[in-house]
Structure formats: structure tokens, C-alpha cells
Design brief:
- The protein is mainly alpha-helical and about 160 residues long.
- The protein contains six helices and three strands.
- Strands 1-3-2 form a three-stranded mixed sheet, with helices on one face.
Length: about 160
């Protein structure tokens, strides 16, 4: 999926190459990040396995795609929520086996529940969004539109 995302970034006029990736040890509870200035940061000491690394790269490349194709304000809780919903939904990070490893087991609507939970977690890391219901509210407001937006994929991979 990462190769597909790289190809589509090039198609929309935002080619990514090795200079857009930084690998470094991280002390936070995340495996990667995206910054319009720095590109994709991969936390080399946080990956569980190769699949986890590939899912993280895809997640961050979805953010890069959104940044390239929309005028996203990363400080807006709602816009950040949309970006997180899309990245979680399209990256594979809610794969059933990953959820089992996290201790989350749900038969019905497991994928949607995972995407919602992980998007709230991502938004809650924004300054001012970690307390109260700011992150949950932002995800709820944009949920339908953003969960159903699978660009550049035809459907949820």
C-alpha cells in the first residue's frame, strides 16, 4: 500500500522520495508522524514487525496525500480528525490481528470502532484537545464524510 500511496502522491503533484523520510528513535507512544515541513518521521524503536512499519508508513503517507490535495489546517480539531479517520481507515492499522494484539475484540463493526478510537487518540494529541470531549466531538462531527472518503483508493483496502 505504501508503494500505491507514493505513486498517487506523484500523480497529484507531490512526489515523495527518500529525503522526505526520517528514521529516528522516539520516546513517545507513537510509531511515526507527519509534518508538512519534515515529511514522514518513522520511530525506529517502536515497530513491532514489518507489517506494523508498513502500516505506519501508509498512515503517514495518507496524511501527506491529504496535505497535498486539500488546504488542511492541522491545528483545527475537525480537520485533523478527518485526516486521522482517513489515515487509520486506509492504512491497515485496524486489521483484526492488530486489534487482537491490542486486546480489543469485537465481532460486529470492529473496524469502525477501531477507526473511531484511534482517530480520537490521534486528535487528543493536539494541544487543547486532550481534555474533555474535544477530540471525540471533532471525530463525531466529521465521521460520515471522512470515513467514506477513500481517496486515492477505490475502497477501504
Amino acid at each position: 500500500m505504501a508503494k500505491f500511496m507514493l505513486e498517487n502522491l506523484e500523480k497529484v503533484g507531490c512526489p515523495f522520495n527518500a529525503s522526505h523520510f526520517v528514521c529516528m528513535p522516539c520516546d513517545s507512544n507513537r510509531a511515526g508522524g507527519f509534518s508538512p515541513d519534515a515529511g514522514v518521521v518513522l520511530c525506529q524503536n517502536k515497530f513491532l514487525n514489518r507489517q506494523h512499519m508498513e502500516d505506519t508508513i501508509t498512515h503517514e503517507l495518507v496524511h501527506a496525500f491529504d496535505h497535498c490535495t486539500t488546504n488542511i489546517n492541522w491545528k483545527s480539531p475537525e480537520q485533523h480528525a478527518c485526516a486521522e479517520i482517513r489515515a487509520v481507515n486506509l492504512s491497515g492499522e485496524c486489521r483484526f490481528t492488530r486489534e487482537l494484539r491490542r486486546g480489543n475484540f469485537q465481532i460486529a463493526r470492529h473496524h469502525q470502532a477501531c477507526v473511531r478510537r484511534r482517530a480520537v487518540l490521534g486528535v487528543s494529541m493536539l494541544p487543547g484537545c486532550g481534555e474533555g470531549t474535544v477530540a471525540e466531538d471533532a471525530v463525531r462531527v466529521v465521521w460520515d464524510k471522512c470515513f467514506n472518503d477513500t481517496a486515492p483508493f477505490d475502497e477501504i483496502p
